[in-house]
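Cross-check.
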Amino acid sequence: MTVVVVVRGMAHVNDPAVIERLLTTPGRWAVVGLSQNPRRVAHGVAHFVQQGLGMTIVPVHPRADVVHGETGYATLADVPGPIDVVDVFVRSDLAGAVVDEAIAVGAKAVWLQLGVVDEEAAARAEAAGLDVVMDTCPAIEAPGERAQRR
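Predicted model, tokenized:
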């Protein structure tokens, strides 16, 4: 399924091949906005990314909580080592700053969650060479999950 997001005349199109590669290639996902609160969507999705997809997760939240057994960090700049995907669980008006941080730390991709849309930030990330997925969720896009919805 191809998702097209249109804002102010610009449109980011999620590439199904990029989505599949990100979801099936082992990687380290920094989950921005992940806290210990199990009522937050980020909590469940991060668990799915960790357990269902087999990715390493890194919680990124101002409180730097330990979540799902993984040490948290206050900012992306505080995370030691490489980051493959920055999974963005913040409001759209805050997403641009997170994307800029992802570019600055050398992340390979940004994944803006369902409902998180920032066309300008997506364009900056793409211009910097990052893969971009926007306005969808790994728990929805995972190959087994897509098959179940059909």
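The first helix runs from residue 16 to 24. The CA atoms of residues 27 and 55 lie 5 Å apart. Passed to J.P. for a second look.
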